[in-house]
Amino acid sequence: MTEIHQPDRAPHQPFSVSPGIDVIPLRTPTLPPATHTNCIVLGGRQSIVVDPASPYPDEQDRLLNWIREQQREVIAIWLTHHHYDHIGGAEALRKASGAPILAHPLTSQQLDGDLTVDEALYQGDRGNLEEFDIEVLHTPGHARGHLAFLERNCGVLIAGDLIAGQGTIVIDPPEGNMADYLHSLGRLLLGPQLRIIPAHGPIIDDGHQTLLAYIAHRKNREEQIIALLEQRQPATPIELVPEIYPEVPSLFHPLAERQVLAHLLKLVEDGLVSRSDGGGQVPGRPVYMSSGGQNRPVLVSFRLTR
Ligand SMILES: [Zn+2]
To answer: Would the pTM of this model clear 0.85, i.e. be above it?
Structure first.
C-alpha cells in the first residue's frame, strides 16, 4: 500500500490516507486546541461522506468544490455522533447531493429537531461500496450513539471522537460513560493493527499502541482518584479537580469536574465507591457542547466502600 499522507502537509489541506480514503479538515466551532474536524470521503466515484462537520458556508463550499473536482458522487452521509462540530454541514450536503443522512438511532434521538436522520446505522452494518469493506462499529463512551467505521481491507479506522489526534476526549455524563468508553477502546484491540483517523488532528499510525495508552491513561486517573479518596473522603467531584487536573485553568474546571464525575460513576458501578445520595440519576448537568443554563458544582459526595 502506498503511503500518501505527508506529515509536513500544509495544515488543513485535504489529504489521502489510502487510495479512496480522503480527509478534508474543515473549520468548526470545536473544543480548543482543535480548530478543525476531519471530514472523510470514502469510496471511488461513488462515495460515503463521514461527518460533514462545518456549519460555516465557506467551509461547506470548500468541501463541495473538492467533491466536484474529484468527480465523486455522494451516495450517503454518515455521522459518527450528534455533536455540532460533526454535523454542522450535513444538511447543506444533503441538499446539494440528494444523499441520505445515516446515524445510530441514539444519535437521531439527540438530534431531535435539529437535523433529521433518514436511515439508521447499527453495529455490524456494512457499507455498500464495491472496493471497500466497511464495518459499522457502535462505540459508546463519548456519546451514547457514537459510531466508528472500520475499513477492513486497509485496516483504517474512522474513529470520530473515540480517539483524539489533538486535545482530549471528553466524557461528560450521562451522554458520556467511562465504563462504555473503556469497553469501546478495548474491543478495538481484539482486531488487527489499525491506522486511525481521529475527528481532530493528524492520522495515528500505531493504532493499538495508542489505544493501550488511552486505556492506561484512564486507569491511572482512576487510581489517582482512589488514592485521593483514601486521603480525604467523602469528596465531591469539584473538590478533587485541582489535584487531578493541576494544569487546567479554572475556566475549564466545570468540564474537568464532569470528567472526574465520569470516573467516580464508573467506580460506583465497579462497587469500589459509594454515593452520598445512594445512587440513581447522574447528578448535575452536562457541560460539554451543552447550552443548558448555569453550571453549579455537583453536591453529591463520594467515598470508598472498603
Ligand atoms: Zn463529540
So the answer is: yes
Question: Would you state the pLDDT for residue 10?
Answer: 52
Structural domain includes residue 296 = yes
Boundary residue ending a domain (177, 205, 233): 205
- Domain match, 178 and 237 both: no
What CATH number should be reported for the domain holding residue 151? 3.60.15.10
| For residues 109-136, average pLDDT | 93
Contact in structure between 133 and 150 (CB atoms under 8 Å): no
CA of 66 to the centre of ligand 1 (A): 25
Report how far ligand 1's centroid is from the alpha carbon of 184 (Å).
Answer: 15
Same domain, 47 and 186: yes
Shared domain check, 254 and 190: no
* Average pLDDT score over the chain: 92
CA–centroid distance, residue 174 to ligand 1 (Å): 14
Rg of the Cα atoms in the chain: 20
For ligand 1, the distance from its centroid to the CA atom of residue 200, given in whole angstroms, is 10
Do 154 and 44 fall within a single domain?
A: yes
Spacing, Cα 146 to ligand 1 middle (Å): 9
Query: What pLDDT sits at residue 4?
Result: 39
What is the pLDDT confidence band of residue 145, given thresholds at 50, 70 and 90? very high
Q: Which domain holds residue 196?
A: 15-205
Q: Ligand 1 mean position to 234 CA, how many Å?
A: 31
Residue 48 belongs to some domain of the structure: yes
Rounded to the nearest angstrom, the distance between the alpha carbon of 288 and the centre of ligand 1 is 9
